[in-house]
Amino acid sequence: MTHPTRDEIELPAVLHALSDPVRLKMVRYLADAGAEQTCRSFDVPVTKSTCTHHFKVLREAGIIHQRQQGTARLNALREEDLEARFPGLLDTILAAA
Amino acid sequence: MTHPTRDEIELPAVLHALSDPVRLKMVRYLADAGAEQTCRSFDVPVTKSTCTHHFKVLREAGIIHQRQQGTARLNALREEDLEARFPGLLDTILAAA
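Predict the joint structure of the above. Result:
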């Protein structure tokens, strides 16, 4: 799984990734959880493959970090990277959502 | 030309509209100008029809207001509406861009 480095995180990709209501809900959930979560822990009305797709979009945009642990894929919000790159952006968007 | 009312402005549509680098540049230009602008006044590397399309996306998302004056279509940023609906969002995104 490839992840953009902090400097490679681009605003258009971040905004695009967050422009989907389901992905926004996932990010909100990760922000509230404050820890790694698996796909199945999310209370969103989508199939597992759609969930996997949404996480891929979030990962490629640099919003989440994914790692494999056995058969589980763990997802964590890249809050520090996002805050360093675009100060206040994530908080403002989550407050607006 | 239809415009969403302030209450009809939705976050996913706003983020999607701003997820395009050209549209983000247009919004930045409108914010700096602080007044209505015509399509041709924008220094963006796109054709007139593409420019028209981008403005339509911005209008339908509730980011700009468009009005016809003779043969010219004037575009203005809906800063007050956006600030009321999503406090700090536009400024934070423009600061990040």
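The helical segments of chain B are 11-18, 21-33, 48-61, 79-85, 89-96.
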